[in-house]
Fold:
Amino acid sequence: MSISAAHEGVAAIRRRRPLRLETRLAPLIWVGPAMALIVVVVIWPVVIMIKTAFQHISPDGFILGWAGWRNFVFLWQEPDLPGILLRTCIWVATVVVGTMLISLALSQLFNQKFPGRRIARWALIAPWAASVMMTSIVFRWALDPNNGIINVVLHDLGLLQRFNSDASDWLGTPDRAFAWMIVVAIFVSVPFSTYALLAGLQSIPSDVYEAARVDGAGTWRTYLTITLPLLRPAFIVALLINVMNVFNSFPIIWEMTRGGPGHETSTTTTFMYQLKESYIGESAAMSVVNFGLVVIIVLLYLRATVWNREAA
Amino acid sequence: MDAVVPATDHVIVRKIEDPPRRRRRWPIHTLIYAGLAYIVATIFLLPYVEMIISAVRPANEMLDRNFLPSHFDVSSFLNIWSTGFGHNLRISLEVAGGSTILVLLVAIPAAYYTARQRFRGRAFFMLLVLVTQMFQPTAMLVGIYREFLSFGMIDTVSSLILVNAGFNMAFAVWILNAYFSAIPQELEEAAFIDGSTRLGALFRITLPLALPGIVTALIFTFIAAWNEFIVALTLTTSQAAEPLTVTLNSYIGQYQVDWRHLFAGSVIATIPVIILFALIEGKVVGGLTAGSIK
Structure:
């Protein structure tokens, strides 16, 4: 079958009208396996997830029947839910804004010509290439109240009085733990964003800058009126990819506090995981809510990328 | 003549110009940029330096409050193998290797065909790929778990291969599609005229030319599957079936953390991956942003 499909390209050149069956089957042979993989691994789980959200399933996994909207009602009645939703918004907003601002500055810096630029850029990829989970574990270790390296530095600088104190136990209180998680999330998000913006900067033709120089525009004016507007497509794409990654981020919170104490450092993603252990129906309901948000982000992304293509 | 060998001319000119350029001193603002960039680069490397230092700290100095231990002790790298770590390392290799092979097997034909042919459903397929690239398994974890539970595939390497391949295929399709599109169709048509089939032309002409794209897709998929954590945490229940990320996670107990082995294992799992990633660094952004940045 695939050999006859292989001949199709030649046949198309020789004959005006290729065989109907072949033209119809050829895409299936070439693209079919990829389609099948997407259906089995990406689409079908969504169907099962939505179905599960309306099922009554016992903690040991037996399906006891349909639950209607009860899983959603249980989820809605969770006393911790408002805090988790608020924290998820803060999480996504602060991490993404922090990442994009730092990346804007770093992409300018790494776009300059200086000796050793290539090596400096290589160093920047480490957090991007390494497993986020392992990076998070290093930060947890570095924040250890007894001997964490961050506490050692703060102590040497005179900013921390005593080890093993409340002040050195960063992950012990929800607010400070959450603040550190935001730092770690920005840390692992900056490399990709910087590279994406660097690619955007390099696509700006240099004659535009020369024209600006001839017109006597200063550095800042050039940046604000030329660089930023031309960087917009790359910026929006990097921003939306970040929103998606940060919203779905699990390992940072999981490795540093497991979402605790209680659910006081959880986002909707880690909360969904915690619910899965015992209330899979409610967990599926949480997933459906999360998935709804994911779909919105994807739609924004599609709009942005289609917009880019039309502009190009 | 000039037009035929511009590259050689260029090299010769550069060679002549190079020495005076090196002798010239860099302007002060360039040195400031360089200094700043080196500081930033160091900051981004620090956690991994700390990872290595902690892995070679002697056991009795683990709780010391200093930057460097009195001496280095590599015993954690030697006795980690007696904990069954090697078995989990092999599972990670199988999952990452299997996912990579599966991705290349399905993405190469799909990317090639979409680059060469206009067919009904092409736009839909490309849109679907773009959408799956944005999706992450986390959002549909419950569905993935229940699906593979019903298949009886919990604690299997093949379930992890399927999920990792499914969610990383989009990157490979995009980057390969860009490479295949850039290879002139005339090259293949010449092979057709010489009696080659489409498959023959693909293997003899197109694939070798697209090799940089294939290598990028290969390394990217391998690293993504190697680093994957939450799906493996969900789809495995026994230590014998866990890849490295889940094993290392289990070193964090309720009351105690086996830091030395944790960091020795992390170094083994992380450093090769950072080096591999450095090889494809320049090409990854294009694949991830799906050609939206030109």
User: Anything to note?
Assistant: The CA atoms of residues 20 and 26 of chain A lie 10 Å apart.
